[in-house]
């Protein structure tokens, strides 16, 4: 299989909440491929963020200047999963991923998401086992590896994630399936290339983009590192 095209997915967790629609439009104009939407429930993780109504309100803003739909990539840090997964599918999400330990029946949750018309993924925290991939890789569209402990933005990248990315890349390549390998947490211009070399093809970046005055300059610099 040929190497998949890199995708950069700015995380709205680091955007200006007072002007989210404008932030979405601006970061897409700056070159974002996906919009990453972190959903926290103050139960599975120690924070509270966005619900389906916010996703629905932002869906019309997640388009290019030419009107092309930009994927909304929803990462559910919630427990239980199923009801909210379906609510986000209805609200306009394109990809929905969840943590396997938050679902009583992982296989059923994957079927629910795909049955609702979305691509489905599993998310693994830094210390989480990858064993469930042995039984679900044939059903996945996305694997997301957390390179920080979820719950808060602005954390530093955990270096052991690179070894984990290498392991998952081998599993994906062996499966022969078109599965995105996404990494989220502390991704910046100075480490995005290392994550790509380890096997990642999709990169979530929050404060590295939204915390800067020029979004396009950051995204262009990331693409420059990826192309080097």
Keywords:
globular, 8-stranded parallel sheet, 18% strand, 35% helix, TIM Barrel, alpha/beta, single chain, 228 residues
Topology:
Blueprint: E1 7-10, H1 20-29, E2 35-40, H2 52-58, E3 72-77, H3 82-91, E4 95-98, H4 106-115, E5 119-124, H5 133-136, E6 142-146, H6 161-175, E7 180-184, H7 192-197, E8 202-205, H8 207-210, H9 215-227
Parallel strand pairs: 1-8, 2-3, 3-4, 4-5, 5-6, 6-7, 7-8
Q: Strand share of the residues? A: 15-25%
Spans where pLDDT lies below 50 across 5 or more residues: none
Mean pLDDT: 95
Span between N and C termini? 21 Å
Strand order of the largest sheet: 1-8-7-6-5-4-3-2
Using the alpha-carbon principal axes, give the shape: globular
Number of helices: 9
- Domain count, please report it: 1
Specify the oligomeric state: single chain
The third-level CATH topology is: TIM Barrel
Question: What is the CATH-assigned architecture?
Answer: Alpha-Beta Barrel
Give the radius of gyration.
Answer: 16 Å
Query: What is the makeup of the main sheet?
Result: 8 strands, parallel
Judged by helices, strands and strand pairing, the structural class is alpha/beta
Number of strands: 8
CATH superfamily: Aldolase class I
Question: What is the H-and-E element order?
Answer: EHEHEHEHEHEHEHEHH
Helix amount: 25-40%
CATH class identity: Alpha Beta
